[in-house]
Amino acid sequence: MSADSLEERAIAARRRAYVPYSGYRVGAALETQDGRVFDGCNVENASYSVTCCAERVALFSAVAAGARGFRRLVVSAGGRTPYPCGACRQALSELAPDDLPITVVTDSGERHEFTLGELLPKPFRMESGRS
């Protein structure tokens, strides 16, 4: 999928966000090595600890569908640069390579590109118990 198409998917996912408390919509599109794309949007809850970010929704949807190899991630949010939060970075580090390209985009057209390893240089890892 082209980078522009992946960005369009992230923007479309953002429109589906459920954000009655913050009003801060985020969308994500995660492309697998085999070309499938999984979208995610943030889903808030009155009990904030059970809120789930767009990046993790996309990642967990991909894993639930059997995907394990990831090619790139695009994250979109309104006027702010939507850097993935620490929880999303850690969740991604469990299943995606350190060199996973992550592009963050805003409505104003700003684009910032990083790798997962740049955003989370020292992830927590548990070597035993992986399946």
Mind explaining what this structure looks like?
With 131 residues, the chain is α+β, with helices and mostly antiparallel strands. 29% of the residues lie in helices and 24% in strands. The protein is built from four helices and five strands. It has helices at 3-15, 54-64, 86-95, 116-119; strands at 26-32, 37-41, 70-77, 101-106, 111-115. A five-stranded mixed beta sheet has the order 2-1-3-4-5. Strand 3, helix 3 and strand 4 (101-106) form a beta-alpha-beta unit.
Give the fraction of residues assigned to helices.
25-40%
Average pLDDT for all residues: 93
Unreliable segments of 5+ consecutive residues: none
From the 3D coordinates, which CATH architecture would you assign? 3-Layer(aba) Sandwich
Q: Which structural traits does this protein have?
A:
131 residues; alpha+beta; Cytidine Deaminase, domain 2; five-stranded mixed β-sheet; 29% helix; 24% strand; globular
Give the structure's gist in a few sentences.
The chain is α+β, with helices and mostly antiparallel strands. It is built from four helices and five strands, in the order H-E-E-H-E-H-E-E-H.
Topology diagram in text:
Elements: H1 3-15, E1 26-32, E2 37-41, H2 54-64, E3 70-77, H3 86-95, E4 101-106, E5 111-115, H4 116-119
Parallel strand pairs: 3-4
Antiparallel strand pairs: 1-2, 1-3, 4-5
